[in-house]
Amino acid sequence: FETIPLPDGGDAFWLDSRTIAHVVTKDDTQSLYTIPISTSPLSFDLSSHVHLVFSAYVYPDGLVETVKEQDTAYENRGNSGLVYDETFERQWDTWVGPKSKAFIGSGSGLSSPVEPFGEADDCDISQTHVIFTAKDPQLPKAVHTRQNIYLVTHDGKDLRQLTSGIQGATHSPVFSPSGDKVAWLELALDGHESDRAKVVIYDLQKDVRFTITEDWDRFPDSIFIFTLAVPLTPPSNAAQTTQPTALTSSGSISGFTPIPGGRATFALSSLTSPNELYELSGLDAVERDLLAGTNADVKATMLTRLTSFSSTGLQGKDLFPGKDIWTHGYVITPPGFERGVNGKWPAVMLIHGGPESAWFDQWSTRWNPNVFASQRYVVVAINPTGSTSFGQRGRPIQDLLLGWKYILQEYPEIDQNRTAAAGASYGGYAINWIQGNPKLGFGFKTLVCHDGVFDTTYNGYATDELFFFNHEWGGRPWDPAAFEASRKYSPAYTVAKWSTPQLTIHSSKDYRLPEGDGIAVFHALQQLGVPSRLLIFPDENHWVINAGNSLKWHYEVFRWLDQFIGLS
To answer: Within 10 Å of residue 300's Cβ, how many Cβ atoms?
Structure first.
């Protein structure tokens, strides 16, 4: 290994076999640097015709050369007013300004990567073309999720749309090694941001588009996590299923990058370890098996850990890998936990967001089950039906209740008089709903709500992404069916039954679930005389990211839990 320090962070990628490019963001400005590599050239062959494709924030003229001058004029305009004639006016944590992302030189007027989370995997480049995903420019962005796949030559000419124009969002477009096919992930329904993604192949030579994971019951989030034998191109657009082959069976993978020699590198984390870099070798044999139509021998691959960044920090920490339970979920027990000592341990049920999300065998600095367990709580994390890769229909509250009752039966070591629930986003909504429906019988002694919905109907007007409410509730908030359903299941109309002590947390830059909901919950609890506390982060969004704020978040959450259910 040659270690290259990057003190300012940023993104790094290869320009050629001896040069790394490094993009650094500082003070709202991005700079591009090159880093020469002093060791011998890499063994893989990079074309001498290097094309650098980048996206930049530009004004409506699309010219990067005029950005600095227009920035100065905009900053000195003499007022702070923002005027909008269409949505989005704000998204995630940012008010939309006059600039948008665009591929420089494409001349398309399309914005990519797609805000707010789009990154480099929103595009790919071949020797002659760029493929990228972008929001359909003809549709209101806050009401529709449709993203089309576009193909354009390096000089910005011959822009071509490859998607049908009736699909939902698209992600992760990539070229095949030969450049004659492209693949992407596609959601079928416009307006449904959490629809199941399917792998689509487009044969550029035959002008045929076909789906190859039509009936696969998983939710892929990038093309490379599983190996697929790409079938022959059918004579016309079609849908079929090719069963992917899992290359790994534990932990959570990100940054999967194929490299020469039948290998790939990626980051892997688990419930007990942050990301470390791994290499998976032997993939050429897997590929040969798949192309031959035989079952791939995944055991022939070798997984090698390349880094140990976290070894020192985790030394002496008693972390539990979690036990799979019930339909699916995890129980993480605290240090010192022993079976047979009944009624000793307090317990916390964590409720994930979405609800189309899931608890994974994955490390995180937010809502890390082992951090809760380290405070001497038995942690229960359930994936109800409707969670990612657990179907698209479900009754999450009922599943949570059944799972919780199952845990209390299976773990008599839990003190049922010292139990709590904590959740964020949809999980925060669930907390507020449980608060107002004691007849459900969860029996929690205290609750923690992070960025949760208070008035479901009002959220359909106030959230940044209007399509989410419109799809989940079957219409706009004033449409009769959606209005009736959202009022029926709105915590705001259950306040008279609230009595459980609750900590409420909200952030002022959360435009997905604006802070008024959290403040309203706190006001209701205070007027009812229910023990309650409000924690506000004026500078955070839907997630608490800042390190100091994260420490404060954890301090207040554990201070609250300890007060009502902690071990003496």
So the answer is: 13
10 Å CB burial of residue 148 (0-12, 13-18, 19+) is: buried
Distance CA 466, CA 458 (A): 11
- Residue 90: how many other CB atoms lie within 10 Å: 16
The sheet with strand 302-305 has its strands ordered as: 252-259, 263-270, 273-281, 302-305
Closest CA to 58 of 92, 107, 21: 107
Bridge partners, residue 535, by sequence = 505
CA distance 276 to 523: 44
Residues 394 and 384: beta-carbon distance below 8 Å: yes
Structure tokens given for 521: 């919950």
The catalytic residue positions are 425, 510, 542
Q: Assess contact for 501 and 565: CB atoms under 8 A.
A: no
Q: Which residues contact 355 (CB under 8 A, 6 or more apart)?
A: 384, 386, 387, 394, 396, 426
pLDDT, averaged in runs of 10, over the chain (568 residues): 75 79 82 75 48 84 92 97 96 96 72 92 91 95 97 88 96 91 95 91 94 85 60 76 82 88 93 95 87 81 93 89 82 95 96 92 96 97 88 87 96 98 98 98 98 98 97 97 98 98 98 98 98 98 98 98 93
